[in-house]
Amino acid sequence: MLSISGLRSAHGGPFDLELGRGECATVVGPSGVGKSLFLRLVADLDPGSGSVQLDHRLRESWPPVAWRRQVVYQAAEPAWWHPTVQPHFPADSMECVRASLAPLHLPTAVLDAEVTRLSTGERQRLALLRSLSRAPVVLLLDEPTASLDEASTLAVEALLQDRVRGGLSIVWVTHSTEQAARVSHRRYGMTREGLRSL
Length: 198
Description:
alpha/beta; 6-stranded mixed β-sheet; 4-stranded antiparallel β-sheet; 30% helix
């Protein structure tokens, strides 16, 4: 469903990756090798060259806003633009969001909290729910559990694996080879020269 061929920028690549519907691909590699850059290239947030297709349709044929609704990128440190949490979510997603709080070890009251008063781990889990609330076809995750304890990490993994079973496709950057083994259908290692299957 997601096909990436010869994707590169001045800072890395070429990258090649194939991902089916309802699959999770993990990308591991040392810090600074270009994992975040790769995700940003796929999301069309950084300039580059190469081919990216979604359901056999070239990325260039999509209006940029429409592409980023289908292929959602979640940065390692997501931005927040309202002072409190709830306005960051579409109104029609709130029932699903509330149902997902407890499985992620978050209280319902967190939706009314000021963003600046939340812990890094709380913001990270809420950012994930914000990304999912957009109902993407492909989710690009940059270390989504980096600030979480083991219990919260496993809760995030369980939630995402459930969404994958429902048809969501994920490209998941992680530093944990153990996590990659738990969650992925395909595993890739990254060097500055590109990706290789593991």
